[in-house]
Queue: 2 jobs
Job 1
Amino acid sequence: MKKLFFAALAAFTICFSAQAQDAKKFYIAPSIGYALGAQTSALGVTNTSAQNNSNMDKANYGTLGNAFLMRLNGGWNINENFALELGFGYAAASKTTINESRFGKTTAKANQFFLQNSVVVGANVGKVRIYTKAGFIIPLSVKTVIEDASSQNASLKQEVKYSTPLGFTGALGIEIPMGSLSFFGELGHTSLNIRRKSATITELKVSGIDRLPDLSNSDKNIDYVTSNPQNSNSPNVNSQELATKDPFSNFSINIGVKIGL
């Protein structure tokens, strides 16, 4: 799938260079929006322990797909019905609860920079333009910060990094032309689940005292593998765990302005 993405990217670049002399064919389109998670998975556990020491655990389902979105797309109008787009964006996710106990919560907050390309198909309907787009999205950098305050007298922070996957994205939009400008609104969907690559504990406090220096390398660092995790007896070697995928898929609404060049 990555080969398809880069082939499409190369085709866009070639077309952009070949048609550079016709500036009216090109545009930029900054936009902002908000996304709601389209898929949930079991991220952790909610523990409802009572004073009589009875415990009741239940799976805590959540998503990392809720996010504020910013994008900057550049496009080439092949003709009045077809266009190619290449865009760069940033997604700042809201906090999601992973684990919960009577002492507190463990939350996760993800941020990502991404690149996407799309084929746009549209038609004029009266004074507006209706279009749809579909393409690929590839996260360039994804990091999730986990804050654990679910234990009594202890708090922990951990940073999770991810592999580089290929996802799919699409949207249905309406565009209102006003001279060289057009205002648009879109309903979009992104299908993206990302496999964990590594995790590092960056902060550990017990009763307000910094205990991070007390941790060995194997205690602080996790490498995620797809099969047969091997853990060494050496404290200087990262520990290994089986990789899991976190859900970043979402539905989004976006508004922006399209500027002809």
Job 2
Amino acid sequence: MKLSVIYKRKHNAGVLWRDEYGYHFEYEDEFISNEKTFSISVNMPKSKKRFNWNDIQDRIMGQPAGFSISGVQPKGFIGKDKNNLLAPNREIESMYIIKPFIDSRRNLYKDSPANEHLTMTMADQLFNISTAKCGLVKFANGEPAYLTRRFDRDKEGKMLGQEDFVSVLNATPGTNSHGLYKYNSFAYEDVGNRLNPTDQISFIRILVFNFLTGNGDVNLKNLSLLESADGDMLLSPSYDLMNTKLHINDPKIAMNLFKEMERTKQDLLTTTYEYKIRDFLELGKRIGVKDRILVSIGKEFRKAKAYMLMLVDKSFLSDTGKLKYKEVVELHYGQLFNP
């Protein structure tokens, strides 16, 4: 892994690469279709279409806004108008998801768009994890927003088959589950056993990455299968990746690794379990990943910390957000790799 390779990429995500006008929505086709994800800071001329989050919220009767990360992050759906500009009009087919910052009662709430942008970028560019294409933009009022292209649509806007693992595993809420069924009905081992051999390798890498970056919300809703061009159901690109520890106090991982529910007491994630890299590699063995591949995964992540921390420093997070993000990475690295 050479950092020079990462940062020589033009329009690299997380790097402040822009001209005097910033990047604009009219360049969106390039950043969405490009194999690389990069940042966008929108300073639109007055002649271009401008809108705020309230304009998207007004579409509630058309294509509604929703929520993510435990119901505290709103998200909306937007498309392109006849002038090929992104717009919130409800008549437009939704090709993109846009998220403002989260509930203002949460910690570092204004950092949430930059947090997701950074984490998605890190997965893609440092670890070559398949992710939904994304960018960091600003509303007309200057507030930041996270923008991503929907991967359940092809280039013509045709819907592709997608099924999250709540559906795949037929997870159903209990009488008193209070929404926790998507966390404790099944383990990651159950998910891995439903994947093909190639996707099983990717899945282990995704889990290690999310542990190191403090993502405590990778539940059954945030893991999906996506229909391929050949009609096969394959592991979808990763989405909703962020360091949740910046904003909420949640577990180090969302679900148990193993079917024996190693850290669950009375169906609630209440017990402390100190995960080590050997636990993730053991999961890989159980679902059929070859030992030599698992050894390679362990080595890959073990040597990546310095690159992760440098990418955090190049991100759009606030100084406080950068410090907190790096603290989480350091803490989780120590837990995972120290004896």
